[in-house]
Amino acid sequence: MESRYSRQIRFAPFGQEGQRRLRSARVAIAGCGALGSAQAELLARAGVGSLRLIDRDFVEWSNLQRQFLFTESDAREALPKAAAAARRLREINQEVALEPVVADLTPANAAELFEHADLILDGCDNFETRYLINDAAVRAGVPWIYGAAVGSYGLTLPVVPERTACFRCVYPEPPAGAQPTCETAGVLGPATAAVAALQTAAALKILAGAPLEARLTTIDVWSGEIRQIGPPARDPGCPCCARREFVYLDGSRRAPVSLCGRNAVQIHEHARPVDLKNLAARLGAIAPVRANEFALRVAIEPYEMTVFPDGRAIIKGTTDIGLARSLYARYIGA
Fold it and tell me: Among this protein's residues, is 241 annotated catalytic?
């Protein structure tokens, strides 16, 4: 339906050919929070061919301030973000093929989750996952676009394998020490929206085959300052893109993670199915339980556990990985 996309087709650098390319493109979005939900909506409205929506988490009330696809009913039902996002996007554009994946992105499934993708968008909230995305993208030769936001500040960087610096060229190791998070420093909706818009604009250029300068862009929506650096130089000794050592993808750097800004730990070491109905009956005898087909949530004061069908769990109320493992073993099983 050409009239639907007429305004972007009339933009000469994009045009009919850009629309045709976009219509056949397959995009994977890693994380459907503030960045990923905005990216998904912008691409769906633009007429992308297909979106794979990958997210491990569920909708909470604190998400609604900046995660535009979600509603109060999604938070009340504690729906997985991927499923809630797909439901809303189907109402926005039925022409887009949607594949919600309620799963944690891990070394074991990264290749499968990014299979056939023409581009990967970063909507995640931690460096470990971004290094994993970088490994998978560089190995497969798929472009991806990094983005992050906290407080009023955000930044973004496109990575095009064999052409630009990769993520590890720019960030050889994760930053040392405690970093600001949305929990400690807060975050403004306009900051996440601005970063997501810049990421999606870069995605449209790549998918349309337009020239792209892979600059590192920083923006502060409170001060109004915008800066561009680069493009960053490729590191001839980079372990990832030069030496092709994919230590995050091979799993040697993987561990349970404390979730950014959540006072929570994700346990993802138990790749086994969990019967949520039986678990609900068992835990319901000792604590309040809410369950649906996607997840089970149980409040065991002062903690809250959310368990997924694949055995993964998010333990809220602690950042102590040892304690989280202990709670998992005690209530779900070793």
Answer: no
* Residue 318 one-letter amino acid: T
**Both tokens assigned to 192:** 């996440």
CB 118 within 8 Å of CB 27: yes
Active-site residue among 32, 124, 182, 240?
182
Whether 103 and 161 map to the same domain: the answer is yes
Q: What range defines the domain where residue 193 resides?
A: 2-229
d(CA 105, CA 87): 21
Residue ending a domain, among 213, 229, 245, is 229
* pLDDT tens per residue across all 334 residues of the chain: 568 999 999 999 999 999 999 999 999 999 999 999 999 999 999 999 999 999 988 898 999 999 999 999 999 998 999 999 999 999 999 999 999 999 888 898 999 999 999 999 999 988 888 999 999 999 999 999 999 999 999 999 999 999 999 999 999 988 765 456 776 578 999 999 999 999 999 999 999 999 999 999 999 999 999 999 989 999 999 999 999 999 999 876 655 555 655 688 888 765 568 888 888 888 888 888 998 888 899 998 899 999 888 888 899 998 887 788 778 877 887 5
Residue type, 206: I
Closest C-alpha to 39, from 265, 188, 193: 193
Domains: count for the chain: 2
The CATH number for 270's domain is 3.30.310.50
Residue type, 149: A
Whether 66 contacts 189, CB under 8 Å: yes
